[in-house]
């Protein structure tokens, strides 16, 4: 007569690993991952501590010029320009929505040229001047495009708005008398999930007329 299964054995198990043991091991693995990801354990014996943060040995010291100011920063090679602006400099006007360069909410200028900052490594910026949404106003005086966005209700949830404004400002700096088709073309890479495109177009054309 065959002996009965021991309590806790899984049905049909031949490995001797119980269901309880498997779950316990999986739980420990998950907990270990959380600890590592939160920096509670040193992930690199050569890691460096700077300003209360743990950096890997290959972290680089850089100078970054943003909105007319210079910043001395320590960054990892994998760090994007968007993350640097938001989390190290506190310039949260630059939004990260898709994080893969498909919505352009993170648009900033590099030497006056619009780029997706979520797809730009900060180490690749080098000595180029970075301009963010915070840098296009003059102190407390909003840029005409920003004012027009308010007047024409060109934003709803607001996530796409900074990128939209940056694209429209760039258009007017290079084409002071745009047509509707010019505005559509300039914002073709900016995704608005709320569908406020008609108001964006009206605001941009109104700002162009005001700036003449």
The structural class is: alpha+beta
CATH fold-level assignment of the largest domain? Ubiquitin-like (UB roll)
From the 3D coordinates, which CATH architecture of the largest domain would you assign?
Roll
Strand order in the largest sheet: 4-3-7-5-6
CATH C-level category of the largest domain: Alpha Beta
| Distance N to C terminus | 98 Å
The tally of structural domains comes to: 2
What does this structure look like?
The protein has helices spanning 19-37, 81-88, 144-151, 161-174, 180-186, 197-211, and strands spanning 48-50, 53-55, 60-66, 69-75, 107-110, 113-116, 129-131. It has 212 residues and is an alpha+beta fold. It folds into two domains: 54-135, Ubiquitin-like (UB roll); 144-211, DNA polymerase, domain 1 (Orthogonal Bundle), CATH 1.10.150.120. The strands form two sheets. Strands 4-3-7-5-6 form a five-stranded mixed β-sheet, with helices on both faces. The protein has a two-stranded antiparallel ribbon with strand order 1-2. A hairpin with a 2-residue loop joins β1 and β2 (53-55). The model is unreliable at 5-14 and 28-47 (pLDDT under 50).
Briefly, what is this?
With 212 residues, the chain is α+β, with helices and mostly antiparallel strands.
Q: Any descriptors?
A:
2 domains, 212 residues, DNA polymerase, domain 1, alpha+beta, globular, two-stranded antiparallel sheet, 33% helix, Ubiquitin-like (UB roll)
């Amino acid at each position: 007569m065959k002996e009965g299964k021991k309590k806790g054995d899984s049905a049909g198990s031949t490995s001797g690993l119980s269901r309880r043991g498997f779950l316990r091991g999986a739980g420990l693995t998950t907990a270990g991952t959380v600890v590592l990801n939160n920096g509670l354990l040193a992930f690199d014996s050569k890691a460096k501590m700077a300003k209360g943060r743990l950096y890997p040995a290959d972290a680089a010291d850089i100078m970054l010029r943003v909105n007319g100011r210079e910043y001395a920063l320590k960054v990892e090679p994998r760090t994007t320009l968007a993350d640097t602006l938001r989390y190290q400099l506190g310039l949260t006007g630059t939004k990260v929505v898709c994080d893969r360069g498909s919505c352009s909410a993170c648009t900033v200028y590099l030497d006056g040229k619009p780029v997706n900052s979520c797809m730009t490594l900060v180490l690749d910026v080098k000595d180029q001047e970075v301009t963010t949404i915070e840098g296009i106003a003059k102190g407390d005086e909003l840029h005409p495009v920003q004012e027009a966005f308010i007047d024409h209700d060109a934003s709803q949830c607001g996530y796409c708005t900074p990128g939209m404004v940056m694209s429209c400002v760039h258009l007017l700096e290079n084409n002071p008398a745009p047509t509707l088709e010019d505005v559509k073309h300039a914002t073709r890479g900016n995704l608005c999930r709320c569908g406020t495109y008609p108001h964006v177009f009206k605001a941009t054309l109104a700002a162009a007329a005001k700036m003449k």
